[in-house]
Structures are given as C-alpha cells and as structure tokens.
Predict the 3D structure of the following.
Amino acid sequence: MKLAEALALRADAAQRAQQLSARVNSSARYQEGETPAEDAAALLAEAGAVLDELESLIRRINRTNAATRIEGGTLTDALARRDVLRLRHATVTAAANAASGEGQRGYRQLRSELKMLSALPVAELRGRADDLARQLREVDTLIQRTNWEADLLD
C-alpha cells in the first residue's frame, strides 16, 4: 500500500470514529419505556475497533514518514517545514494586512483627526508572503509526490 492510500484510510477512520462517538453519545441514555435508536454498547465496541485501526495506521504512517528520505532530510522533516511555512505565511500576511489598514477606517474626515501610519513596510511584507507561499507550494508538492511513491512500512 502506498503512503497516500494509508493517509486517506487514516482520514476515513478518524471521521468514522467521530461519527460513532456522536452516535454512542446520542444513544447512551433513553427514556424509560422507550427503546434507544441504536445499541450504544455495540456502537462503542465498533468505535473501539475503528480506533484500534486508526492507531495502527498512525503508527505505520509515522514510521514511514521518519524512514522515507527526500531531498533535505526525511518526510517528517518536510512535514515540519510545511507546517512552519504555513504559520510564517499566515503571520506575515496578517502583519501586512494590519499595517495596510485592511478592515480599518483609513481616511480622515477632518484635519484635526490623528493620522494612522504603518509601522511595517507593507510592500516588503507582501513580497515575503509571496515567497513563503511559493516555498509552501514547493514543499507541499514534494510531500504529495513522495506520498504516492513511498510504500507504507509495517
């Protein structure tokens, strides 16, 4: 099985576990004289089996990520890089938006009103944000390609 397939199975298992948990919670109590919509104990057992499968997938995915070599390190390194690039991009973009006055009243009605000045170079920040977005796309493409090439470890 390829790593990308395991990632899809992991997402499905996580969603299934959430759905089962919600169904357990809605069936865990019922009014006297009524019957519950579903068997909460059976749902709980099913959720346990799905969570066991999820744990196994996560372990195998993590082992594969740590062992898979790509340019500049391992797949785990690339995932960390991507996560931090996303945070950097969001931070720089938010700073540029705030410095440009986006979402704020940016004009004065009277000369006596205080003038708002930018404390940061907006154009430079936009350029940095564009560069970070490019780096993010490149790392993400490398990760996606590797996910389809790497075989899942046991």
